[in-house]
Amino acid sequence: MTGELILFESHEVRAFEHDGEIWIPLPDLAEAWGIDRTTPIKIISRNSDVFEGLTSNGGVMSPDVQCVNERGLYLLMGKVSAGRLKHKEAQEAIIRFQRWVPELIQKYRKKEIVQVPVSALSLIDEELDLAKHFAEKTQGNTKAFQAATLKKFGYDHLAEALDIPSRVHGEAGTWFTPTQIAERCGSDLSARNINYFLLNKGFQYLDGGLWRLSDTGKLHGEEYWFTSPQKHSEIRIRWKASILTASGLMKPIEQTALPAKV
User: Fold this and answer.
1) Is 97 helix (H, G, I), strand (E, B) or coil?
2) Which domains, ranges and CATH numbers included, belong to the chain?
3) What sections of 119-220 are H helices per DSSP?
4) pLDDT tens for residues 58-98?
5) Plot region of 239 (φ>0 → left; ψ -120 to 50 → alpha; else → beta)
6) pTM above threshold 0.85
């Protein structure tokens, strides 16, 4: 089986033909829209009767990747939009996607987009394992070897997710995770404490269980794709050193309202 690949604003969206219908993986849609990858799955689960026959868990791409056909895609876009997403950028991305998707379908049917064998997915897995093997043999950095493999296959955005934020403090351009911010404060606070502190200060908000940057937060941090060793990808936030003073965490202790332990 072959799939078709097209870019939507630098995001890869694949389309597969099966039993005469066009199918698109839900993870591709979630990434293109800038939403939590579990959101489409939850919407379909809550409306299983409406989506009956419009989704597929196997036989299209792989057993663990759920896909939606063309009719299901239009229905899903309506359901996601009706959910009143808090993230303005995601709302705007879905609107742009709605305008663009007819072009995707048209190009697919005219075979004007790039063909990618589904077997390439297993090839990537094999090469990632091989990269790990060579890293161990040469005592090299496993993440660096695997990032090179991802770039080889054109997954630059996933390769960037392997980049670990620096633990060096106080330098321009330094990135901090919430755990590192807690360490920098010289306290026994947890990442959870820091996250809710930054929430209350208006630097971030929760969207489907994921932390996302507010407009104020974008001045001091950035969102990036993190991939776990189990190959689960999700959006995370890393912070510039400026967040320490902007949030008030760097003020003298008597002037600072540190977050309470949760």
Assistant:
1) helix
2) 2-117 (3.10.260), 164-255 (no CATH)
3) 119-138, 142-152, 156-161, 178-184, 191-200
4) 656 565 678 888 889 888 888 876 556 666 777 788 888 88
5) beta
6) no
